[in-house]
């Protein structure tokens, strides 16, 4: 039980890094309004996280293949807590941005090691269920932390950053005993030092990149799209997005039983298919009711994609390479949204939010068809 709690706790910080600042950015902008370029710098409180996590994920993957994982979790958890709470005591927005970079790096490291450990220490029969719970934990943390941050922010924007004491739970749970690298990894390291790019499954990296776009980009445009079809109040938009997240969390919790019954290939087809149908329906929805129904459908796909990808990595990647490859895959998912936004933003005046959502639906449909038609996937199934 303590090991399961340790794994689940590794996913919370990665959710909090994005959600905690959302309700308080306006207050921070007002507080630092006298600083040159303050409006841009406050946005970088969240903007710096992508590059930081893109560094932290592969770094943690490399380290986790060589050193005690519980020890690494403790170190990164302490770094996350210290850098996360630091803005409570800081008066410089530039220094705050630097601490946010450290927080993003540490959060990605915790998430990566958390997704690496089930493949190393749990039997195959338990891994799928754990991967689903890891994904669900992140989603639940997002839902809970948004209103909590807003409530604390009513007492001042600094107070919300106290939420980042939560990574200390990881450090505490990591204390009782050490888990050394698996014997296969330790033996591999003693035989040879692998280059960072050796043995990378580029197909899985490309799949992770696509999943990063499919999961993240709809959220960027969703609030604007919902506002355009009748959700005039922020509370309504927030409630709709919360419903979708709850559906995704439920789908993630059910992932273990789902993949046991259907297999990874069918789950990929179903997940991408649900995303395609749901997002396309959302893009053409003429009222809020239709938008909610289609968003719920997309939410099912959102809940299955990440655990299915991690399950595949756990099954396909050799023990000696697992930590390193999980880190690279996590990095691909982290940087993907930046490229997706850079591609869609110039087109937005012409296609609008409906076109952006339809484009992501098309990408999802392409991957659903690829998994359905792939002879290799069919043979593996």
Automatic annotation (TrEMBL):
Domain Major facilitator superfamily (MFS) profile: 1-376
Record keyword Coiled coil present: no
Gene3D superfamilies listed in its UniProt record: MFS general substrate transporter like domains (1.20.1250.20)
One of the Pfam families matching this protein, by short name: MFS_1
Domain of life: Bacteria
GO annotation, cellular component aspect: plasma membrane
Subcellular location(s) per record: Cell membrane
Membrane topology: Multi-pass membrane protein
Main location per the UniProt record: membrane
Keywords of this entry: Cell membrane, Membrane, Transmembrane, Transmembrane helix
InterPro entries: MFS, MFS_dom, MFS_Efflux_Transporters, MFS_trans_sf
Any GO MF annotation of the entry: transmembrane transporter activity
Transmembrane annotation, as ranges: 43-64, 71-90, 96-116, 128-149, 155-175, 196-217, 237-259, 266-282, 288-305, 325-344, 350-373
Name of the protein this chain belongs to: Major facilitator superfamily (MFS) profile domain-containing protein
């Amino acid at each position: 039980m303590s090991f399961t709690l340790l794994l689940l706790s590794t996913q919370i910080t990665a959710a909090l890094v994005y959600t905690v600042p959302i309700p308080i950015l306006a207050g921070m902008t007002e507080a630092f309004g006298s600083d040159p370029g303050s409006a841009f710098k406050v946005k970088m409180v969240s903007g710096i996280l992508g590059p930081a996590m893109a560094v932290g994920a592969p770094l943690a993957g490399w380290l986790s293949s060589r050193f005690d994982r519980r020890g690494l979790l403790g170190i990164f958890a302490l770094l996350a807590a210290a850098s996360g709470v630091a803005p409570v005591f800081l008066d410089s927005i530039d220094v705050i941005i630097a601490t946010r970079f450290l927080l993003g790096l540490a959060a990605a490291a915790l998430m990566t090691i958390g997704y690496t450990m089930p493949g190393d220490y749990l039997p195959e029969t338990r891994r799928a269920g754990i991967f689903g719970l890891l994904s669900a934990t992140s989603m639940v943390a997002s839902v809970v932390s948004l209103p909590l941050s807003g409530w604390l922010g009513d007492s001042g924007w600094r107070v919300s950053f106290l939420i980042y004491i939560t990574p200390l739970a990881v450090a505490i749970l990591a204390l009782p005993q050490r888990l050394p690298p698996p014997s296969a990894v330790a033996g591999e390291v003693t035989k040879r030092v692998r280059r960072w790019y050796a043995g990378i499954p580029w197909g899985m990296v490309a799949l992770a990149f696509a999943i990063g776009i499919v999961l993240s980009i709809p959220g960027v445009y969703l609030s604007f799209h919902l506002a355009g079809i009748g959700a005039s109040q922020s509370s309504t938009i927030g409630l709709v997005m919360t419903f979708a997240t709850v559906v995704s969390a439920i789908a993630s919790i059910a992932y273990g039983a789902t993949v046991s019954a259907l297999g990874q290939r069918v789950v990929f087809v179903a997940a991408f298919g649900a995303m395609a149908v749901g997002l396309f329906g959302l893009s053409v929805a003429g009222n809020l009711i239709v938008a909610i129904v289609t968003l719920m459908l997309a939410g099912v796909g959102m809940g299955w994609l990440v655990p299915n990808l991690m399950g595949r990595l756990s099954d396909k990647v050799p023990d000696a390479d697992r930590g390193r490859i999980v880190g690279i895959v996590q990095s691909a998912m982290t940087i993907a949204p930046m490229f997706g936004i850079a591609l869609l933003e110039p087109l937005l005046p012409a296609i609008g939010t409906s076109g952006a959502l339809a484009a992501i639906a098309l990408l999802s449909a392409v991957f659903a068809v690829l998994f359905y038609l792939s002879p290799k996937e069919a043979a593996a199934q």
